[in-house]
TrEMBL record:
InterPro entries: Put_HupE_UreJ. This is Hydrogenase/urease accessory protein HupE. It holds the Pfam family HupE_UreJ_2. Keywords: Membrane, Transmembrane, Transmembrane helix. The chain crosses the membrane at residues 207-230, 265-285, 305-327, 339-360. It comes from Nannocystis exedens. The keyword Cytoplasm does not apply. Residues 1-41 are annotated as: Disordered.
Length: 363
């Protein structure tokens, strides 16, 4: 005999019980898969020490910084034709995060569930209404909803936005714009490339052309890869992205100011690689079949907003650095001006070695 249905308007927190030996969940206990130099001649005095310290710091910091380290928690909800819902957390949040409590719409009734599962009966109304998740303090929760005859839809929840409607939405999937911004700001290699390109290319009009070429190129490969028209293994792509940073650092160290055409070609070539890197991160989330193009456009727009933010911040910091350097003795300027190239080069070389050696490392 089924349990009585709750009164209308009563929320039923559907806590997912923990498997034997696991954490008490409210979220499924499953292991989380574990991401402007000028003339440098005449370096004397403190210059070698500055260079050595910069490279040492870069090499020590590099292994801890991983590009595209985008590993959101993934909650899968499957609705049957009779309104029953089965849920599971395919990838849980970080190990030290709080347990998650999944709260289905008010008319859904919780059912007994095996450890590590969520079950509910939403009746004839189906899985419609607000989905609320509590305990999400950092990172993202990707909700993949499968409905009979409707395919797969995707929602993105994050701290500050832990409620989302489960009703069909013909507009762009919520969360993909912010997801793009967060990815570019959290992807260390993309940040360093945009920062290095901003320091290398002058004047401002030429820099704008280079950033436009970078945008157009990575938008192309991102779209092709995300829509399944281009597939390349991620490890070689990541290694080539690191090599692109090495080349950029070399140009910065030699103070090689590229012509407009050379800047465009450099940015476009590297943009093709970085777009494949973006696609690898987007694959972690997936694109909803019914709204793949709007989701892709929203994600790409978020990447561009983050990229512009980085360029503006770097330009402001560069202007401040020039003002500070102008007040220093000439002897101290050369090693300090070389710091960006040294740090970028040290990190890029470390990443290149790490990613190439990973080809022969067990997964």
């Amino acid at each position: 005999m089924s349990a009585p249905r709750p009164a209308a308007g009563t929320h039923v927190p559907s806590a997912i019980p923990a498997p034997p030996g696991g954490r008490s969940i409210s979220a499924v206990s499953a292991p989380l898969e574990t991401p402007v130099p000028s003339d440098t001649s005449g370096w004397t005095g403190t210059a070698p020490a500055v260079a050595a310290l910069a490279c040492a710091a870069a090499l020590l910091a590099a292994p801890a910084a991983h590009a595209h380290e985008f590993r959101p928690a993934v909650l899968v909800l499957e609705e049957a034709a009779d309104g029953r819902v089965d849920g599971r957390l395919e990838r849980q949040p970080e190990p030290d995060a709080r347990d998650l409590v999944v709260e289905l719409p008010p008319h859904c009734r919780a059912l007994p569930a095996a450890p590590g599962r969520l079950r509910a009966d939403c009746g004839l109304d189906g899985l419609r209404g607000p989905l609320t998740v509590t305990g999400l303090e950092r990172g993202e929760l990707i909700v993949r909803l499968r409905r009979p005859g409707a395919g797969l839809s995707t929602l993105v929840l994050r701290p500050g936005r832990t409620t989302a409607p489960l009703d069909p939405d013909p507009g762009p999937p919520p969360g993909y714009l912010a997801l793009g911004v967060e990815h570019i700001l959290g992807g260390a290699d993309h940040l360093l490339f945009v920062a290095g390109l901003t320091l290398l290319v002058r004047p401002a009009l030429r820099l704008a052309g280079a950033l436009t070429a970078f945008t157009a190129a990575h938008s192309l490969t991102l779209a092709l890869a995300a829509l399944g028209l281009l597939a390349l293994p991620q490890p070689p792509v990541e290694a080539c992205i690191a090599v692109s940073l090495v080349l950029l650092a070399r140009a910065l160290a030699r103070d090689e100011r590229p012509s407009a055409g050379a800047a465009w070609r450099l940015a476009a070539a590297c943009g093709l690689l970085h777009g494949l890197g973006f696609a690898g991160a987007l694959a972690e989330v997936g694109l909803p079949p019914g709204a793949a193009v709007p989701a892709l456009l929203a994600f790409n727009a978020g990447v561009e907003l983050g990229q512009l933010l980085v360029a503006v911040v770097v330009l402001a910091l560069a202007a401040l650095a020039r003002a500070v350097l102008a007040a220093l003795p000439a002897r101290a300027r050369a090693p300090l001006r070389a710091l960006p190239a040294l740090v970028l080069g040290g990190v890029a070389v470390a990443w290149t070695l790490e990613r190439v050696l990973a080809f022969w490392s067990p997964a």
